[in-house]
Amino acid sequence: MKVTSNIQEFKLVLEDTDYGSDIFANQDNESEFEVTQLRKAMKEKLMEQIEFISGQAVYPLSQFLKMMLHGYQIDNVVFMIEGLKSNRPMEELIRIADPLGRFPELKNIMPIEGEDYASLYQNVLIDLPVGIYFRKFLNEVTGAA
Predict the structure, then answer these.
(1) What 3-state class would DSSP assign to 4?
(2) Nearest by Cα to 15 from 34, 30, 35
(3) Distance between CA atoms of 117 and 138, rounded to whole angstroms?
(4) Predicted pLDDT at 3
(5) In this structure, what are the phi and psi dihedrals at residue 115, rounded to the nearest 5 degrees?
(6) What pLDDT is recorded for position 57?
(7) Both ends of the chain: CA-CA distance in Å?
(8) How confident is the model at residue 107 (pLDDT cuts 50, 70, 90)?
(9) Which of 57, 84, 82, 79 is nearest to 68 (CA)?
(10) Distances 108 to 63, 81, 87, 132, 138 between C-alpha atoms, Å
(11) What integer is the mean pLDDT of 121-141?
């Protein structure tokens, strides 16, 4: 979906904010600006701001900010696993992953053979910031206590 008629109005609204200068700075042709590009650019800017605040924050705010991103991180892990199962290149998957769910260990996720999710957890997911959620899920699925 392309936005053409209201991009100038939208740009005027964002002009006086940090988002305006950063989001539209790298756009060559505003008439070709897509909604998905805008969404990604805004999420990248939001993530920069969250990282800045996290760097200045102390507990419990720092913990809250980390936990706030867990849902996005889980979505990215699932996205990476599914993408790798479909034989998509890792570089492409990392590039298009949600900026709010990126974390350094994301690039360590490897494809699994068949449905061996227990070994995927033991080898990869355990080290992720959201590994605890996957452990709880796998325990429920397998009936382990």
Answers:
(1) coil
(2) 30
(3) 8
(4) 47
(5) -115, 35
(6) 95
(7) 47
(8) confident
(9) 57
(10) 24, 11, 15, 17, 20
(11) 76
Rounded CA-CA distance 74/103 in Å is 11
Which residues, at least 6 apart from 102, have a Cβ–Cβ distance to it below 8 Å? 47, 73, 76, 94
Annotate 37-84 with DSSP letters as a single string.
HHHHHHHHHHHHHHHHHHHH--TTHHHHHHHHTHHHHHHHHHHHHHHH
Q: How far is CA 65 from CA 50, 60, 71, 100, 141, in A?
A: 7, 9, 12, 11, 29
Give yes or no for a contact between 18 and 45, defined as CB atoms under 8 angstroms apart.
yes
Q: Is the pLDDT confidence value at 89 over 70?
A: yes
Query: How does DSSP classify residue 15?
Result: T
Spatial distance between the Cα atoms of 38 and 77, rounded to a whole number of angstroms: 23
pLDDT at 4 exceeding the cut of 60: no
Burial (CB count <10 Å: 0-12, 13-18, 19+), residue 70 = middle
Contacts 24+ apart (CB under 8 A), 46-49: 46/99, 46/100, 47/99, 47/100, 47/102, 49/18
